[in-house]
Amino acid sequence: EIGNAYAVLSNPEKRKQYDLTGNEEQTCNRPSNGRFNFHRGCEADITPEDLFNMFFGGAFPTGSVHSFSNGRAGYSHPNQHRQSGHEREEERGDGGFSMFIQLMPIIVLILVSLLSQLMISNSPYALYPRSSTGQTIKMQTENLGVVYYVNKDFRNEYKGVSLQKVEKSVEEDYVSNTRNNCWKERQQKTDLLYAAKVYRDDRLRKKADSMPMDNCKELERLTSLYRGG
């Protein structure tokens, strides 16, 4: 019934005949222009599956359908539709591949992140106690007296030259952190003095003068130790 309805509605001559007779069988089996309708009625024009594919699959019917142009019936070869089916499969494959290409940067970032986490080992020391890593045992470098924290197995694993390398790394990290913190303290003091001058606020000036500048003092101490003072 769906095939018959589609055949009648898609063909102007059949639709006109149906409007006159109101009979679907006569419309489908009626000779056209003196020639018998070789389509054997309307049933072979299109199937429900073909209609479904046309509206929801974004493609043309997969079976042998008839096309009408200027009132003349034309026959399309089934191989053409099979080819279009293969083309749809290839398009689906290309769509999956293109989606994979679009997701490739994200996949690469995830893999790089995982590899970096696997390759980077935990530091054997910490400048501040870390209970999560077990680095709670307090130690002190021999050269600058910098305090750092290690786990319970540190003394068994690091001795002699390896311990000296660790302590050198500890001192470099400590000096770098102290230098950065000293720069922040100086910048904050400079900002306060500038604001006190602009707004003529004596309270801001006193606040700037009373800043402890602990990191800058520690940096001076470390510098004097480097120089042997």
UniProtKB/TrEMBL annotation:
The lineage of its organism: Eukaryota, Metazoa, Chordata, Craniata, Vertebrata. It comes from Scopus umbretta (Hammerkop). One of its GO terms (cellular component) is endoplasmic reticulum membrane. One of its GO terms (biological process) is cellular response to misfolded protein. Residues 71-92 are annotated as: Disordered. This is DJB14 protein. It comes from the Eukaryota. Keywords: Chaperone, Membrane, Transmembrane, Transmembrane helix. One of its GO terms (molecular function) is Hsp70 protein binding. InterPro entries: DnaJ_subfamily_B/C (IPR051100), DUF1977_DnaJ-like (IPR015399), J_dom_sf (IPR036869). Residues 121-219 form the DUF1977 domain. The chain crosses the membrane at residues 99-120.
